[in-house]
Every structure is written in C-alpha cells, then in structure tokens.
Amino acid sequence: MQAVMRALRSVLEPGKVPVLFVLGVIALGLATNALYDALKATLGPFSILEIAVLLLIGLVVVAWLARFFVRQKLTVTNINPRRGLVVLVSKGRMKDIPATTAIEYHYQDGHGRLEYCWLITSARPNKESDQPDENRSGEEPIQSAWLNAQGLKSKYQGKLRAIEVIEIKETFPDDPEGVFKATETAFNRAQRRRLRAKELVADMTGGTKLMTTGMVLACTTLNCDVEYLLPLGLTPDGRADASQGAVPKRVDLSFFVGSGEHDEGAF
What pTM was computed for the model? Predict the structure, then answer.
C-alpha cells in the first residue's frame, strides 16, 4: 500500500515528477469527458446535474466525518543511528550536554552509522579563548556553547567524514529565525553530501524553547526527522540526570507535513 501511495504522489503532486503530473492531468481529463458522455447518453443532462450535485455534497459530508472521527496524533518511536546528524549545542560541561549524548549514540565508538555531523551553536562570545579555563578541582569546566562546539569538532575530527560548526548569525541567539536558517544551512550541506532525507536526523534537545521551535519548523519544511533525548533518570529537582544517560526518540512529523514516507532521493 505504501508503494502504491508513493506512486500516486508522483502523479498527483506537481513538485514530484512534473511530466507525470501533466500526463496524469491529461489522462484524468480524458476519463472525465468519457464518463460524462456515457452518463449523458444513458441518463440525460438533468439527471447528470442532479448526480453531480449529490456527489459533491456526499464528498463534503464524508470529508467532514473523516476529520471529525479520525483523529491524527503525534507519535514518538525509537530511532536507529543515522548517517547524518544536525544537533543544537548548549552551554555546560561538554560531557553532560545533550549534543554529546546524541553524537555518541549515532557514532557508538565507530560501530554506529554516523558519518556527517553539523553543530549548531551561538556565536563566539567576546574575548573567549580557544581553550577552556583550567579547573583546579579536576572537574570538567562549564563552557559556552561555542566552545563546546569547538571541543566536539576537535574530538570527532578524523573519526567522521565531516563535522562542521554552524554559528547562528542573529545577534540574539535564541531567535527562532536564526536557528531555522542555521538548520536549513545544515540541510543544504547534507544535500550536497548526497544524503537522503531518511539518512538524516536533527536533535532538538540542547536548545532553548525558542531555538527548538526554529529547528522543528525547518524540519517540517523539508520533511526531515527530528529527535529528542529521553532521560533515563532525573535529579531530585526534576532535571535530567546526565550521569544516567538518555535514549533518543524520533518524533513523527508526518502529522504536520502530511506524509510519513521519505523520498528515496535527497531532499
């Protein structure tokens, strides 16, 4: 059934295969004219008009009933490691931030599928050095999002085919539009790497609510999968306990974009 639906979308959607769409319109027009001629010869023009009106009313009623009784819902499922990952990098200790967990899951010490990674982060803070401050306690220091992105890039450089830092251009890093544009930039680079949409996922866990909004909107535009990290444990104050780990979960955006199937090709 899914294969049939993909084939029908190639004919019914102008943006899929334009030539097939034009041929489909012509074929539909010929079939409609043939049906009209057959009904006119059998029933007469007034009967055809009555049937057309009743059919139109019936379609409207069926569509209304389907919308009323068939409730679409947002679904969350497990996700397997992907070849491409777009991830929001946040402030904190690098070992504890969600971006680190997401990369480790898809990479799995080289046993996963991750080959390409794009790190979305705020711009470099003023007067920040390229190296973290020394911490006499021996504990990993709390760093800016930009410095964490540099650390992750350095850690996985050479292990992945490519890992790139994409800075949010807007002065206000929480601006959803800035994150939207940065996510789009990552998708464009993934397309140039010939990654298919189903081979790529965007992790929205590490950002603020506004940053998450920008990333999710970009994912719905290009029908790209989005994931979040479900913590395996919480601290006494209800926060995610990084020491207990987390599991990525895929959010099915077909509820919004109208299709649960990715195209076989690139975006």
Answer: 0.71
